[in-house]
Amino acid sequence: MWDMELLLKITLLVSTLLPTAALLVWLERRLLGFWQERCGPNRVGPFGILQSLADLIKILFKHDWIPPFADKPLFVLAPLIGALAVMMSFVVVPLSPGWMISDSHIGLLFFLAMTSLAVYGVLLAGWSSNNKYALLGGMRAAAQTICYEVFMGVSLLGVVILAGSFRLSDIVQAQQGLWFVIPQFVGFVIFIIAGIAESHRLPFDLPEAETELTGGFHTEYSGIKFALFFLGEYLGIMLISMMATTLFLGGWLGPWLPPLVWFLLKTLLLICFFILLRASLPRPRYDQLLAFGWKWLLPLALVNLLVTAAIKLTGGT
Amino acid sequence: MSIARSFSIREELSTVIPDLNLIDEQCVDGIDTFWVPRTRLLLVAEALRFSLKKPFSFLYDLTAIDETRRESGAKQVMQDFTLVYLLRSYDRNKDVRLKVALAEQDKKAPSVCKVWPNANWYEREVWDLFGIEFQGHPCLRRIMMPTSWQGHPLCKEHPARATEMGKYSLPDDIRDFEQEALRFDPKAWGLEPTGRDEEFMWLNLGPNHPSVHGVFRIMLQLEGEQIVQAIPDIGYHHRGAEKMAERQSWHSYIPYTDRIDYLGGVMNNLPYLMAVEKLAGIEVPERARVIRVMMCEIFRILSHLLFYGTFAQDIGALSPIFYMFVDREKLFTIVEAITGARMHPSWFRIGGVSSDLPRGWDRLILDWLDEMPKRLHDYDKMVMDNALVKQRTVGIGRYDTATAIEWGVTGPGLRATGFDWDLRKQRPYSGYENFDFDVPVAENGDSYDRCKVRVEEIRQSMRIIRQCVDNMPSGPYKAEHSLTTPPVKDRTMQDIDTLIPHFLGVSWGPVIPPGEAMAEVEATKGSNAYYLISDGSTNSYRTHIRTPSFPHLQMIPVMARGQMISDLIATLGSIDFVMADVDR
């Protein structure tokens, strides 16, 4: 009845994802430190690698506080939704030919659906906190997601047209000859930008924007519930990097090295790129971000889609 | 010299107001001082502001003095309280001081808010600290002290120490009462409700907020994210620095000045000491003056670098602040080598500086000066040339020169509007006339330009420092004067006439001759001045600190109107204020 192999894979995935996200926190802090002429965490364990573990222990022992003015059920539910929706998406990510939990024929759609769900975590957190800063953060998150959701989907359709499938493993296989990053460069750039916006990281971290909204949607959160948001954010970066690898950088494809290593290497490179962006760019204003999305990226994504479709129809590639 | 000049002002005034009865006072600082009867105050103010050919359009400072314990002074007009207005005309490059005498039973004066808009907060401060009522003031409420405070702290009868006030306790009911008193009530601020309740939201930005650089509160009326109006509220960082001055000896107050603009370090010592030296008649030796200029410019760079970094951080750029902290760290090492302390060296002394420069100081500074331009160039590329930074700051928080002067803006904020006025050039002090440097000016007066001016000022300060290193004069680092504190010690053990002043100066502190003097410097954030009144004793009778950040914050409502929250944050970042400097 139960597919033991599948269960094992799921357990393995979850139990590696969480420590990896923690490691990623450490990696980001070390890299930021390196780029900013300082050390970063280097005391706990070799090279400070256990810093996240120490943080986790601390955060687990904190008072599990729910503000008396908050809407309790939603307040508790919000971080769970955020983290779970991101984790669900990993189901469809093809790490290597032999490692796919679900090679669904609508894998890409499932990924898009789950990222859309993830914003509910932010929205509900902002709403249920009953705090004005959180509310403003929630509002920004809603506006930003609606905007960036649209053209994230559109930017991926070029890939779908080229591969002729929503199945992620098919898409990877279709890149045997040429990675899609070359014919779909515009789509790649737009997807990366939308991806940063989706995971609410600098320069698109407007929903939390700590210098403006003190913490935005998670202002009232602390302890383990805050950690879940944090976890969701870092899983989000991993997810976006993995998806970009799968869709544009040929997934596990590559010579000499085993497929899984190729996949992880490409993902790591993208993650480092995201961290570098965070270190180097300031934050645009809320309306500027939206204007950029609606007025530039969406038309660009549409044109990209049209051109790709036209070439495909006339029998180009 | 000053008498001849004062005649002309008086004559000019008398053409406007024929039966004017002004009484002259001679002050050590040479500023024309007139006593004006209270009934004529508004008339004179309007004449000075509107009727003269070159008007006094800038209310530089407004404060009061409690004269009830005063033993020396201009006896004929003095009553229990004196209001002091310091006015400036940029066209004439000249100041006028007006004084109004008030009696204890009748502590009232007409408000000059309609003549100079920035009088608003100054009058609130005088009301709060002295209990002088300003008739016609739009919203006369406490500004420094909590609204629930009893008494007016700068009155002489008000205790200065906690030990004089009985044991302090905070039972739950009083705590709740005090917290309730902090709740924002638009009516108590004299605001008429605008629009329906559901149309806007009041957002309490601060007193604790990452972008208010300290404890500062702005109440924002928001429509979506757009600001309908902003009401700044200060006083959370008030330490009573002016009251403390009345208990400290002239010498032992120096460390307190370091903590006014806590990023300015020894730059704060300078106006205070210049005022004391004016009162005492001390001529500071050339070497000490150059050392002072050098240290001040080092602190200007330190402060501007922090501004640069936090400005970038406020608009979301994470990294610049860390690079600038590295530079600051290197510079603090130099400051430490010279003064023995880092941020608050309190290193200047009455009549000079604390000690001579250590061996090898010039090498340290030159090394730093050599490596810095390249890094500054990198910062320009990273921050000033960044398209996102420009998008966030160009045209944001903009004001023109006239508005700036009207609201009392000084320093880089004024020069960013294209107005070329730097105290170091216009009224050189401590030997600035001997240095070759430019005054950076921008055109638009927006957030971006305010940053641009400061960045350029860093380069100019580096020029000045290099000139200091190249041309450091030899000679004593302290004046040969009996009031120099601590005095030069060479002959102390040789003859009794030097031993006695030395002993008194060190144990009691110097006795500064009676009089009053104001001294001003172009500080890191604008014009910083100390107005000192000596009653011929070992401590100051009244110390007033005119800080640049105070009027700058008062202007926020003008700048914030119609902005988004993010714009306000960029604007706040570009003002470069320090709450300790605002609240004192």
UniProtKB/TrEMBL annotation, chain A:
<keyword id="KW-1133">Transmembrane helix</keyword>
<feature type="transmembrane region" description="Helical">
    <location>
        <begin position="260"/>
        <end position="277"/>
    </location>
</feature>
<comment type="subunit">
    <text>NDH-1 is composed of 14 different subunits. Subunits NuoA, H, J, K, L, M, N constitute the membrane sector of the complex.</text>
</comment>
<feature type="transmembrane region" description="Helical">
    <location>
        <begin position="74"/>
        <end position="93"/>
    </location>
</feature>
<feature type="transmembrane region" description="Helical">
    <location>
        <begin position="289"/>
        <end position="311"/>
    </location>
</feature>
<keyword id="KW-0830">Ubiquinone</keyword>
<keyword id="KW-0874">Quinone</keyword>
<keyword id="KW-1003">Cell membrane</keyword>
<protein>
    <recommendedName>
        <fullName>NADH-quinone oxidoreductase subunit H</fullName>
        <ecNumber>7.1.1.-</ecNumber>
    </recommendedName>
</protein>
<keyword id="KW-0472">Membrane</keyword>
<keyword id="KW-0812">Transmembrane</keyword>
<feature type="transmembrane region" description="Helical">
    <location>
        <begin position="105"/>
        <end position="125"/>
    </location>
</feature>
<comment type="similarity">
    <text>Belongs to the complex I subunit 1 family.</text>
</comment>
<feature type="transmembrane region" description="Helical">
    <location>
        <begin position="178"/>
        <end position="197"/>
    </location>
</feature>
<feature type="transmembrane region" description="Helical">
    <location>
        <begin position="6"/>
        <end position="27"/>
    </location>
</feature>
<keyword id="KW-0520">NAD</keyword>
<comment type="function">
    <text>NDH-1 shuttles electrons from NADH, via FMN and iron-sulfur (Fe-S) centers, to quinones in the respiratory chain. The immediate electron acceptor for the enzyme in this species is believed to be ubiquinone. Couples the redox reaction to proton translocation (for every two electrons transferred, four hydrogen ions are translocated across the cytoplasmic membrane), and thus conserves the redox energy in a proton gradient. This subunit may bind ubiquinone.</text>
</comment>
<feature type="transmembrane region" description="Helical">
    <location>
        <begin position="234"/>
        <end position="254"/>
    </location>
</feature>
<dbReference type="Pfam" id="PF00146">
    <property type="entry name" value="NADHdh"/>
</dbReference>
<dbReference type="InterPro" id="IPR018086">
    <property type="entry name" value="NADH_UbQ_OxRdtase_su1_CS"/>
</dbReference>
<keyword id="KW-1278">Translocase</keyword>
<dbReference type="InterPro" id="IPR001694">
    <property type="entry name" value="NADH_UbQ_OxRdtase_su1/FPO"/>
</dbReference>
From TrEMBL, chain B:
<comment type="similarity">
    <text>In the N-terminal section; belongs to the complex I 30 kDa subunit family.</text>
</comment>
<feature type="region of interest" description="NADH dehydrogenase I subunit C">
    <location>
        <begin position="1"/>
        <end position="175"/>
    </location>
</feature>
<dbReference type="InterPro" id="IPR001135">
    <property type="entry name" value="NADH_Q_OxRdtase_suD"/>
</dbReference>
<protein>
    <recommendedName>
        <fullName>NADH-quinone oxidoreductase subunit C/D</fullName>
        <ecNumber>7.1.1.-</ecNumber>
    </recommendedName>
</protein>
<keyword id="KW-0830">Ubiquinone</keyword>
<dbReference type="InterPro" id="IPR014029">
    <property type="entry name" value="NADH_UbQ_OxRdtase_49kDa_CS"/>
</dbReference>
<dbReference type="InterPro" id="IPR001268">
    <property type="entry name" value="NADH_UbQ_OxRdtase_30kDa_su"/>
</dbReference>
<comment type="function">
    <text>NDH-1 shuttles electrons from NADH, via FMN and iron-sulfur (Fe-S) centers, to quinones in the respiratory chain. The immediate electron acceptor for the enzyme in this species is believed to be ubiquinone. Couples the redox reaction to proton translocation (for every two electrons transferred, four hydrogen ions are translocated across the cytoplasmic membrane), and thus conserves the redox energy in a proton gradient.</text>
</comment>
<dbReference type="InterPro" id="IPR037232">
    <property type="entry name" value="NADH_quin_OxRdtase_su_C/D-like"/>
</dbReference>
<keyword id="KW-0874">Quinone</keyword>
<dbReference type="InterPro" id="IPR029014">
    <property type="entry name" value="NiFe-Hase_large"/>
</dbReference>
<comment type="similarity">
    <text>In the C-terminal section; belongs to the complex I 49 kDa subunit family.</text>
</comment>
<dbReference type="Pfam" id="PF00329">
    <property type="entry name" value="Complex1_30kDa"/>
</dbReference>
<keyword id="KW-0520">NAD</keyword>
<feature type="domain" description="NADH-quinone oxidoreductase subunit D">
    <location>
        <begin position="314"/>
        <end position="584"/>
    </location>
</feature>
<keyword id="KW-1278">Translocase</keyword>
<dbReference type="InterPro" id="IPR022885">
    <property type="entry name" value="NDH1_su_D/H"/>
</dbReference>
<keyword id="KW-1003">Cell membrane</keyword>
<comment type="subunit">
    <text>NDH-1 is composed of 13 different subunits. Subunits NuoB, CD, E, F, and G constitute the peripheral sector of the complex.</text>
</comment>
<keyword id="KW-0813">Transport</keyword>
<dbReference type="InterPro" id="IPR020396">
    <property type="entry name" value="NADH_UbQ_OxRdtase_CS"/>
</dbReference>
<dbReference type="Pfam" id="PF00346">
    <property type="entry name" value="Complex1_49kDa"/>
</dbReference>
